[in-house]
Amino acid sequence: MPHFQTKKLPNIELPFTKDSYHFLYQTKEINSKSLLMVEYKDKKFFIEIVKREDNYLIRAEKLTRFSPLFIIQNALKIFSSYLDLTLTYSNLDSKKNNMHLLTESKYLKKIDYFVDEFKVPKNLALEIGFGSGRHLLHQAKNNPQNTYIGIEIHKPSIEQVIKQCKLQNIENILILDYDARIFLELLPSLSLSKIFVHFPVPWDKKPDRRVISPIFIDECNRTLKKDGRLELRTDSENYYNYSWSVINEYNQFDIAIKKNHQLEISSKYEDRWIKQEKNIYDFHMINSIPNMQNLAKFKIEFETDLYEYLSNFSLNFKKTLLRDKECFVNIESLYMIDDKNGILKISLGSYKKSQHKYIVFKDKIVQYFPNKLIPIKNSFDAHMLLINHIKEVGYVK
């Protein structure tokens, strides 16, 4: 993660602009942390400032960071230079080869694009956790009639695939940095021909974090076309056995299993495992009886008067966990910009698939940040749970 350390940090006069970066405002310190809002072209993100015992840590804030990371890295460099800071440590001078390729927005999409603009093409496939991208790139290059969505949360992997899309002139890939389990609920029924899950993290010690689960399989059954395939490939016998135990509860799928089957393309890690004579398991689930019922989409928005409630809510703020039968809201932190404006940090959604957000309330506008909530039932229910709580706490007679 881009960051640097400095012994002293002078007062920051905001706003200021340099090299197309707009440093807009800073929150007041809470628990030795504050947030600095930065805008660059169509992107906004936070820089986090952490006051420690003998120095300051200034870094890309985890929840709002995005690919390409060099944009945030440059913001940190500009911030350091503008304040003329003496750095005791920095990792901001990493290589930038072909960084201009990463600005190709036609490949990298925000979740808001899929909420507001995306039209499902005729032949659509999804790869979850594409890693080095060899398989995703191979599929797209050899099947130009198809559109592929690649989902990955590892930023260097995302940047590597964006570069390759540009260098190889591949036009039929869209890349998303998001939780695939939540994303699936956004897609219409019968919209996918294939879902690839190749070498997912086994999560043997935290099985609740696995991609494969009954809820995930339900969504595969709904989003895959008739005879569409979920293709799981793993080197973990534990994961294979676990997946079998989950899928075995369904009668909507025909199952095809292969062991040590060689694909046309493999990752460098798979090449290493094969050299080590490690077993590779393929588990294909063919959707013979698809669920054709579309999920209802919900309109999630903030009421116009909520800003006033939030301003009063901040006076009585305390960390709160709200629970309902199917959803929750965890109100984690409050950062105030001034007496009326501030930022809430929350997590919310279903118990199995939570979303982490900020709520920025400033200048009478309230919005989720850095992106919207997926407009599905659990999100809507959690959103309403939150609004009702804010109104109850922020009510003034």
Summarize the structure.
The protein is of the alpha+beta class. The chain is 25% helix and 31% strand.
Keywords:
alpha+beta; 7-stranded antiparallel sheet; 25% helix
Topology diagram in text:
Layout (H helix, E strand, L loop, with lengths): L2 E4 L9 E3 L2 E6 L6 E8 L2 E9 L4 E5 L9 H13 L4 E4 L17 E2 L1 H6 L7 E5 L5 H9 L4 E5 L3 H13 L5 E4 L3 H4 L8 E7 L15 H10 E11 L2 H11 L5 E7 L8 H8 L5 E7 L18 H8 L6 E4 L4 E9 L5 E8 L4 E9 L2 E5 L7 H18 L3
Parallel strand pairs: 8-11, 9-10, 9-12, 10-11, 12-13
Antiparallel strand pairs: 1-6, 1-7, 2-3, 3-4, 4-5, 5-6, 13-15, 14-15, 16-17, 17-18, 18-19, 19-20
Helix pairs in contact: 9-10
